């Protein structure tokens, strides 16, 4: 798997699939180098996007792997690569979150993330906040 920062050429692929991010913000995040595009044999297979919690802590917002490529370790590779990039930039802690009814919480914990809090919004499952020292 190859992982690079997304470019404007990746806009269509991401905007067709990312239902959690307003389309006008995708270009902004691409320009800010806050989206990685994942490729296998020159074919897009997913992406990961992040921002900064409290403007000072890298926060992984979403990892997406297309269905045929799931369960092959690509998600783990993405997270470890991102953590290394953040460490090289001088960050000591990274964060992410997942809803309590999603399996992702177990994935993150296996990678060393610990629960550090939660958020409860009306009509949504509990959002678990996780962090990891890098």
Automatic annotation (TrEMBL):
Residues 1-134 form the N-acetyltransferase domain. InterPro entries: Acyl_CoA_acyltransferase (IPR016181), GNAT_dom (IPR000182), YpeA/RimI_acetyltransf (IPR050680). Keywords: Acyltransferase, Transferase. Signal peptide: none annotated. GO terms for molecular function: acyltransferase activity, transferring groups other than amino-acyl groups. The keyword Transferase applies. Gene3D superfamilies: 3.40.630.30. This is GNAT family N-acetyltransferase.
């Amino acid at each position: 798997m190859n992982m690079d920062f997304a470019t404007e050429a990746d806009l269509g692929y991401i905007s067709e699939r990312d239902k959690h991010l307003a389309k006008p913000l995708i270009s902004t995040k691409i320009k800010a180098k806050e989206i990685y595009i994942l490729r296998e044999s020159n074919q897009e297979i997913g992406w990961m996007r992040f921002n900064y919690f409290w403007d000072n802590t890298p926060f992984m917002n979403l990892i997406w792997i297309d269905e045929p490529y799931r369960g092959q370790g690509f998600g783990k590779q993405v997270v470890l690569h991102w953590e290394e990039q953040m460490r090289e930039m001088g960050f000591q802690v990274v964060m992410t979150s997942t809803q309590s009814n999603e399996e992702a919480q177990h994935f993150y914990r296996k990678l060393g993330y610990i629960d550090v809090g939660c958020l409860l919004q009306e009509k949504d499952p509990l959002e678990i906040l996780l962090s990891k020292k890098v």
